[in-house]
Amino acid sequence: MNRKLLFPLAAAAGYLALAIFDLSRFFTAVDTAFYGTLEMLAVIPPIFILLGLLDVWVPKEIMVKYMGEGSGITGGIIAFFIGSAAAGPLYGAFPVASVLMKKGAGFFNILIFIGAWSTTKIPMFLFELQALGAAFALTRLAVNIPGIIIIAKLIHTLLSPAAVDEIYRASELR
Q: How many other C-beta atoms are found inside a 10 Å radius of the C-beta of residue 82?
């Protein structure tokens, strides 16, 4: 059997089991899958349009200069602000990270970008300021920023150069 079919067949079996044994949960699962698919269809096309523009408008030399392995703190700051300014769910970060990798962004900066996208989005921060107060929002940000840097440094240090190269090769296949 083709391994690519394993997950869809398992999902179909799960839906079938729910339909047989618990019809209300079956409808809840179908409803959740439907709205999740609609959300993805609303988010992914704009991300891919922006990726196409990034690919065409930003020369590789510029990306390497400002976000490449030798970019230092400048690359990390740029990666952090790009990730923080992003909108959309975390799964939208990975195609962007792939394009950044193809353009020559350093692995540490890619990790900073993904960390920022997942935890320090500006719209989320503004909501927290209003709904939860400045003390909470600023404390969370003060904890998250060093956390992102520490985790990125750990991953960057623990992964072998061969593993990082494999990640870059895999991004080029997509």
A: 20
